[in-house]
Amino acid sequence: MGTVEFRNVSFKYPLSEKEALKEVSLKIDASEFVVVCGKSGCGKTTLLRQLKKNLMPYGRLEGEVLYDGENPSDTDDRKNAAEIGFVRQDPDNQIVTDKVWHELAFGLESLGLDNSTIKRRVAETASFFDIQTWFRKNTDELSGGQKQMVNLASVMVMQPKLLILDEPTAQLDPIAASEFLRTIHRINREIGTTVILSEHRLEEAFVMADRVVVMEEGKILCDDVPTKVGTYLSGDPRNDMFLGLPSVMKIFNEIEPSGESPLTMREGRIWLESFLKDRVIPERMKKELPPEIRRQEQAKDRRESRKDEQGAGKDKNDEQGAGKDKNDEQGTGKDTDKSKKHGLYTIEAKDLWFRYSKKEQDVLRGTNLRVPKGQWLSILGGNGTGKSTLLKALCGVIKPSRGNVKTGGRISMLPQDPRTLFTEITAEEELQEALSDKKESDKEKAEKTEKMICLMELQEIRKMHPYDLSGGEQQRLALGKVLLTEPSIILLDEPTKGLDAFFKRTLAEIFMKLTEEGMTIVMVSHDMEFCAEYSYCCAMFFDGEVVSADVPEDFFSGNNFYTTVSNRIAGKWFPKAVTYQEVAGCVKAMM
Amino acid sequence: MFKEGLGETSKFSEYHPTVNLIYFVFVIGITMFATSPAFLAVTFFCAWFYSVLLRGYKAIKMNIVFMLPIFAVMVFVNTFFNHNGETILFYLNRAPITKEALVFGMAAAIVLTSVIIWFMCFNVIMSADKFIYLFGRTAPILGLLLSMTFRFIKLLKVRFREISDGQKCLGKEGSRKILSRIRQLLKEVSILISWSLEASIETADSMEARGYGLKGRTFFHIYKFTGRDLQMMILILISGGISAAGCIMKEMTMYYYPVLDFPEESWLTAVMLTFYGILLLLPAISDIYGELKWERLNSEM
Question: Are A431 and A438 in contact (CB under 8 A)?
């Protein structure tokens, strides 16, 4: 029970020229765990939705979709509702009622079970998902991770045979996301529910999956056990999806383009151990990376040259207190000791204190931050430490109770949810709206809009409604809108949330382009891999303060727990290598 | 413990919703018709007492804020615009101002404020959940609808806040001119509406995916009707029933026109008054008893 089969399925949305699915054939056995991955818009969602009666997209379907040997649209409503569970991306929108317990009971109420049966099922489900401590809470008091857990539990309470998850962790922070994925794994292993999961966060999903299906433009590119998928994607020419692979696989495939790759970090370490057994690692490699693989070499050069022009940089006499040195400098001072003048930072926040209400604790406790022009600073840190609050204080949405913020230029912030900015009916008008209160001629405005469309690569979607865009496209549109207000500093709150690995790179390229033009970027993120790979400087936010700041290779190599996967695998041999390219480069240099 | 008020920790609110509902139906129903001075005094005093017990010092302020204008308006209007009654105090523009009208104005004001204060207590005791349960019992859809409404209102608030922060991030909302502020507000509301509509499509999908619309929907609740509830229910029914009977028998009624007709003191009235008093004090007694017991258990530990 719980088997799925697609036989030569093709699907076309009305009014669309392209086929969303092209001759997809796929067979999933009972109790299998299948991960479906691919770039945004590759047809993952369209594929998954074919199985759930009320979510089937409207359009022309060819071929056969079978659930338990029968077409889902012919199954009994009751059976389809109970046996196929579907969890989607947005945690908030899927919750119907105001209480956690009521939400859990919702599906069973629909099936018409009596009170005592519902009570028993709800009780066992709540215990399995560890919900009992917040069972009586209001659904709006929960964190995003808890909300998504409620959504999962309220589907599982109906005891489905097949569980379909469409990017369920896209809106969650990494800690909540890995907890969520672990729970799904547990469901599959302990209860035997068939799981189909579409996911961008492959680092963890790969380890759990029995099979991985990679999709590209509506077609199935490969369908194999996880260890072999990496080999396939790293073939020549390298597939875009390669970027999304777990770090272990990326490192492995950079070095050994064939063979079965290790999956977990532990396996990766064992493999490296045996690989490097007979080789002596030169001392120099422990202190710095070999020059030929130093990442962002160019970007860094550009940054430094600009700094020299503008005379920004470290001022040794300008410290507000001993030990604050690094905090203040944000790592840019490392490579220059020229004495510089005052006031060359675009952001200077001094001694910020803030709390949300009288009874709560301070979120910001004497935070100091200085960011020079053209910097791209990533602020990392645990959940609920106040990173977002810091951004709000910097752009003036909240007023700190003590301390002040000086900014050298217009400051804009891209909120976490891009939908809070959308007012118009097409992407193009959306951008024009940002210019509505500027005193410029229409021609100038049109030119600016056009430039922005090119910069953000929105040409193909300019006439589409903002709500019809995918997460990544919405993010780009919102960023374009924010940029049109012509800020010189831009603050970003979790800009990589829910984006696929390929688009993350595009986004990073946009950011680099902007910093070259003199824009300053301050970004708050949980995405260590992204920060390590692209940003110029990383800082840790803890207990209301910025506690350490450095260039990524030094920032992460100094950390034991809080570091990238690549660094955790290879840190023992190459402490300065924090991205997969660096680790692979180091290993190659040894060969 | 009494400074902040008991609020939702009140023992009386831990009873079954049906018990709570029946209690307030009795109390508010009888309070509206009991016009004789002794009964007025009892309900007024008990309402005050219980509201302070539930909501602490805040309640005193709130009660006075509500009471004063009601008193002022009702006494003024009734005295100067109602010319019934035989005991004329004086003439104003040839219109007779009577003692009866003045006294009736005061009595009516006391009835009204008592009812309002009882409703405030009702609000604390009858949480949204209990409402949903009571409605859900009669019609499952109604219960679900209420539950969804409560969620939606909170969601709207959160979203509006996010939108307005988002707009501030864009550097909008800076202008002081009223016209542009109104325009900005309208824009934020329009974002809120389109966002919420879009979201509710997904919510509807999620409902249907979990079988909403199938025949024979039931309503789940987490309330149990226990022996304790039965005891309280019987107490309420006895004291409330006797008081209600007295109310119907006009034992609690006083005629204010044409002359003030104070009711005679009889043993029947005394019995009624006692039971009415018991009814009104039941929740307060159960709360205070529960609170003391808790203190005792706590100190023993």
Answer: no
